[in-house]
Design a protein that fits this description.
single chain; 447 residues; alpha+beta; three-stranded antiparallel beta sheet; 14 helices; rod-shaped
Length: 447
């Protein structure tokens, strides 16, 4: 018992001596700055001798130092803190035992005894080049100087001292993407199979959305066939050439629609082709053409504009998928009607008589052939049909087709096996697929 009391007395005396020594260090006019830190190191507030020991009596001395550290480098810190440097990737200062390259051993204005306040960039840029972090478009944590939001300052199991799997780390903040990806019918391949940094710079970029390259160049790294088409085609779809590029029509991460479309294909197209100007020129108002029409062209009825148009690039006017006459008169020749014949019977215009290639016939006489193959005044599809929608059956326009300043009304009347029309081109003529009509009295009028 006496031994225990003696030991306790000695410990209390030692502690009192340490406290007195610390008090003397802070208030003696030599080390007063140590007490001014916003975040002081706990031992520096009353236990200086836990880190320092006197090696020469008579402190302070005019020459030399009378105190030394009780241990060197990180070994000193490890007397209180758990030892670091056991994981796969270790921050260089930690690996070298240089804790004080980032931390002030007495205190700091930032948390964790760092010299920087809340903005960690000041500290990190002491070693890391600042230029890659100061481009026009900056990632939120970088802008805030919150480097440790993504990186562990000491050690990590993954490269770049990341705090976890890269994609999971991104989705911890981008919760909307995490939720959307789980619910989406289609997820973009790179999003599903590669890190986010395949497309995005995690720090800053000269391109919007932190993209590593401008649109559409970034997408064309993978979509090489589209790139090849764009580089050789006569016409490139204008949205591909602006800053948003592919993102004008496609969802870049996930979508419920085929082709990662950012919504219904027709609705996306009409978002621009609904009277919206292209620079100083208004685009053709297709939305107005479709409004209230009785009949939609087959692809449009299915909500598809790409049945006739290439959404990226084409050698044909209006980004069409093939040749399509633009004039009222366009005599048939091989290849001239390739666009229409992609879907319609390829023999539609080849034979003067047929019973299988068209329903527009009088008996076996092919009336499509009759109208289109005349070598001087062969009429194009436009002479009778609308390309997108018609107010009547067969994509006919009740107001007629424009012929210069005149609109030629067709006055089409259909029956179960044929019909009749009376346009400005000729007097009323009838046709019937089962029993040919004799129109001899009206033949040749107005031709």
């Amino acid at each position: 018992m006496k031994t225990y009391l003696l030991l306790l007395t000695l410990l209390l005396a030692c502690a009192a001596g340490n406290a007195a020594a610390a008090e003397n260090c802070l208030s003696g006019g030599c080390h007063a700055k140590i007490a001014s830190f916003k975040h002081p190191h706990q031992p520096a507030q009353g236990n200086c001798l836990s880190c320092h020991r006197e090696k020469t009596p008579g402190h302070p001395q005019q020459k030399g130092k009378s105190f030394e550290l009780v241990a060197k480098g990180s070994a000193l810190c490890a007397t209180c803190h758990d030892a670091l440097g056991k994981k796969k990737v270790v921050h260089a200062p930690v690996k070298e035992g240089e804790c004080t390259s980032c931390h002030n051993p007495h205190g700091g204005n930032g948390r964790h005894l760092t010299q920087a306040d809340e903005n960690q960039k000041e500290l990190c840029f002491g070693c890391h080049d600042a230029a890659p972090f100061k481009k026009p478009h900056v990632h939120g944590p970088v802008a805030e100087g919150a480097c440790t939001a993504c990186h562990d300052p000491h050690e990590s199991a993954g490269k770049a001292l990341l705090k976890g799997d890269l994609k999971e780390l991104c989705l911890k903040c981008h919760e909307d993407f995490a939720k959307g990806m789980k619910q989406a019918a289609r997820v973009h391949g790179p999003v599903k199979n590669t890190p986010c940094t395949s497309c995005h710079d995690p720090h800053s970029s000269v391109h919007p959305s932190l993209l590593k390259e401008k649109m559409p160049d970034l997408c064309l790294r993978c979509h090489k066939e589209i790139g090849k088409k764009m580089s050789s085609a006569k016409l490139v779809h204008q949205p591909l050439t602006d800053a948003k590029g592919c993102g004008n029509c496609h969802s870049t991460h996930f979508s419920a629609a085929k082709g990662l479309m950012a919504g219904d294909q027709k609705a996306i197209c009409l978002g621009c082709h609904g009277g919206k100007p292209l620079g100083n020129l208004p685009l053709r108002d297709i939305a107005k053409e479709l409004a209230g029409k009785k009949t939609l062209h087959g692809p449009l009825k299915e909500g598809k504009c790409d049945g006739c148009h290439n959404p990226h690039a084409s050698d044909y006017r209006r980004l069409l998928l093939g040749n399509y006459p633009v004039s009222f008169y366009a005599p048939y020749r091989e290849g001239a009607y390739d666009l229409c014949l992609k879907c319609h019977n390829k023999n539609l215009l080849r034979y003067p008589d047929t019973t299988v290639n068209t329903k527009f016939r009088n008996g076996a006489r092919n009336l499509h052939y009759l109208h289109v193959t005349d070598r001087i005044k062969g009429r194009s599809c436009l002479a009778c049909h609308e390309t997108h929608a018609g107010g009547d059956d067969k994509l006919m326009n009740p107001q007629g087709t424009r012929f210069g300043q005149w609109q030629i009304k067709t006055r089409l009347k259909l029956t179960a096996t044929g019909g009749s029309c009376a346009p400005g081109c000729h007097l009323p003529l009838a046709y019937d697929r089962e029993r040919a009509v004799d129109n001899a009295k009206a033949q040749g009028v107005g031709r």
